[in-house]
Amino acid sequence: MGGVVPERTAEAVSRARAAIAEHARLVDDFPAPGIAFKDLTPVLADPEGLSTIVTALTHGCSSIDLVAGIDARGFLLGGAVARELEVGVLAVRKGGKLPPPVLAVDYSLEYGQATLEIPANGLNLSGSRVLLVDDVLATGGTAVAAAELLHRAGAQVVGVAVIMELAGLGGRDTIARGLGPDVPVHAVASD
């Protein structure tokens, strides 16, 4: 793995937080009344914002073999982070998006059920050390489900990196219960 210099990534975290503060858009009553949604789309559309966020997501990473990006914004971020770390990327897809055969895991969301999938053939993930990447950490259920899916494929999730953590929703605790307290969770910013 190349490219991870702690001083460089720490500086990127600071610059990424400034980009989020400058460009993120707050949308009241979305997706439901009473919720204030922080839209990161303008941050990622800004070249400096995207660049610093990608580098910031690598902060603290070491000995990673693969980046797994969670459908859909995690794909965008995961590919860029993998390039920065000089490793491959795997898309963890929502159910029904991949041709069979697939490995799948069903999990509960606060508003229903969902499925995540990865290809069952053509990948040898056995023994791979994986960084799981997504845009937002809310309740943590999706990250734990993705990690379970990767574990079934023989991989080990050794870290979770997100742009924004919604700290009041307990996602970090859910990940600690599901993956163990030693799996680091890196959030560039929290809200």
From TrEMBL:
- Which BP terms from GO are recorded? adenine salvage; AMP salvage; purine ribonucleoside salvage
Give the EC class as a word: transferase
**So what EC number does this one have?**
2.4.2.7
Q: Please tell me whether the keyword Glycosyltransferase is annotated for this protein.
A: yes
Whether Glycosyltransferase counts among this entry's keywords is yes
Cellular location of this protein?
A: Cytoplasm
From the UniProt record, which GO molecular function terms apply? adenine binding; adenine phosphoribosyltransferase activity; AMP binding
Question: Which keywords does the record carry?
Answer: Cytoplasm, Glycosyltransferase, Purine salvage, Transferase
* TM annotation in the entry: none
Q: Where is the Phosphoribosyltransferase domain?
A: 63-165
Q: Which SUPFAM superfamilies match?
A: PRTase-like
One GO cellular component assignment for this chain's record is: cytoplasm
Q: In which pathway does it act?
A: Purine metabolism; AMP biosynthesis via salvage pathway; AMP from adenine: step 1/1
Enumerate the catalysed reactions. Answer: AMP + diphosphate = 5-phospho-alpha-D-ribose 1-diphosphate + adenine
Quaternary structure, from the entry: Homodimer.
Q: Which PANTHER family match?
A: ADENINE PHOSPHORIBOSYLTRANSFERASE
Q: Function of this protein?
A: Catalyzes a salvage reaction resulting in the formation of AMP, that is energically less costly than de novo synthesis.
Q: What family does the entry list?
A: Belongs to the purine/pyrimidine phosphoribosyltransferase family.
Give the protein name, as stated in the record.
Adenine phosphoribosyltransferase
- The UniProt gene name for this protein comes to apt
